[in-house]
Amino acid sequence: MKVLVLNCGSSSVKFRLFRMEDEQLQASGIVECIGSPEARLVYRVPRRDDRRQVVRAEDHSQAINLVLDGLTNPHHGVLEDIHEIDAVGHRVVHGGETFTEPVLINEAVLLKIKECRRFAPLHNPPNISGIEASLFLIPFARQIAVFDTAFHQSMKPEAFIYALPYEWYEKRRIRRYGFHGTSHHYVSVKAARILGKPIDGLKIVTCHLGNGASVCAVEAGKSVDTSMGFTPVEGLIMGTRCGDIDASLPLHIMEEDGLAPARMDNILNKQSGLFGITGGDNDLRTIEQKADSGSDRHRLALAMFTRKVKKYIGAYAAIMGGIDCLVFTAGIGENSPSVRRMVCEGLGFLGIRIDDAANEANRGRIGCGKTEVLVIPTDEELAIAKEVASVLAEEGEGPEPVEIPVITPGGKKILAIDDDPDIHDYFTTVLSKAGYAYFRADNMKQGIKMVPEVQPDLIILDVMMEDISAGFRFAKELRSAEAGRPGRPVPILMVTAVERVTGLTFRDRVGTDQLPIDGFLEKPVEPEVLLKKVSDTIHR
Ligand code: ADP
Q: Is 334 in the pocket of ligand 1 (CB under 6 A)?
């Protein structure tokens, strides 16, 4: 199984393609500066030279198209055909309270992701553009959304409610959500595996220390608390974000300097944190170098950063009533021995002691006290791909076919495939009245079996958005079963509401190799429109 992971930001699309059988990375890269003349594609295949090129990418759809072109390029591609992509995993920053785990994207899911836009106005819109572009460009593949917030939905109200007017939570869902969930989940599961212990019995504190940084208390495999809140600004000191501060402070400055909320938001997100303290440096390597060279401000930044991590570790050990394992991950957590040493200094009372040699060598196990201290590289994209694979495994093969009474054929024969009895009743009424012989199948598996028996003149395939990829696969399967047989292939008319929900337009691709169907009909379908389209498609 091949899974393409897409991480769409406001002006970039990061991608990674995995072969899931051995979790091997096939290709990766990024389209950056989307919408600007400097747009470029960086395309990487393991053990080959990187390819960089200036490209035309005005929006996410064009960017994803470039990625697909790269992946299928005869010289440097890794796929013969985009149909080899079985599923696409989309990183979605905010899933609100709706999404507690990864989900297959259907119409209802997409609408709900759109509703979560208000929580993450900068992040969710590009995620949504990526989903819509991918539904359009890779409709054969299953599309799965994986949320940064989902892992933390296990937090209890005492961890997620703010001490603010309670109606804000009730009416507007103002609460702590937490982020980096995929990473905290991934490294906590890995930690249990490394220790050879069931995660159910472990109290783990995971420190994701990158440009964005957060700590999570993971008890029995569930997030019970995390440092980020309603937005990713809360918690640790980060590269450019302030982390926890007195809530009155921004108001005070806004009042004194006459700043608008957007300007204050920019300062808290982009000009604070390590950047703010040092006066312009947010890269930890630079900060370490300048601290070593004697800069007091850079030393202060390091001391403040590590002290805050230490505070959270202590708090979470207290919340969980102990700690069995401390995990460091992400750019800083994986690579900076001095940050890890400073964080762990003085935590002997929690059983946290570091083996200096192991720490300096960036080894995986660096603790020498009773609490394990692990350095585990995070791989958010692989974690997303694995979540995708598990959603698909859970989904299974779908329902078994059932026997359906066959109506005696009159004029032309129509086989309709849908699992909704109401739609069948509607089709039966409209089409039988018009003199068509109407056959029904409750699912695609059954439909495929019925084709040789019924020999229909037309297949109507009514698909929900979650089934749209299955619908296209069905059409392909049917076409290859028909290949070599005399006569023209049975036309397929797809009926769906996908265009209404997403604003996608598949029409211009109908009948091409990419979309092996012969017509598209948008729901709800008026009887006259249905009859005209059916007749046109049969007599085409
Ligand atoms: P994000 O994904 O949030 O952008 P990363 O996880 O890539 O961030 O982490 C970026 C941070 O990791 C930067 O501050 C960078 O300086 C730091 N980092 C990367 N490599 C090293 C290293 N060898 N030593 C110290 N810090 C490092």
A: no
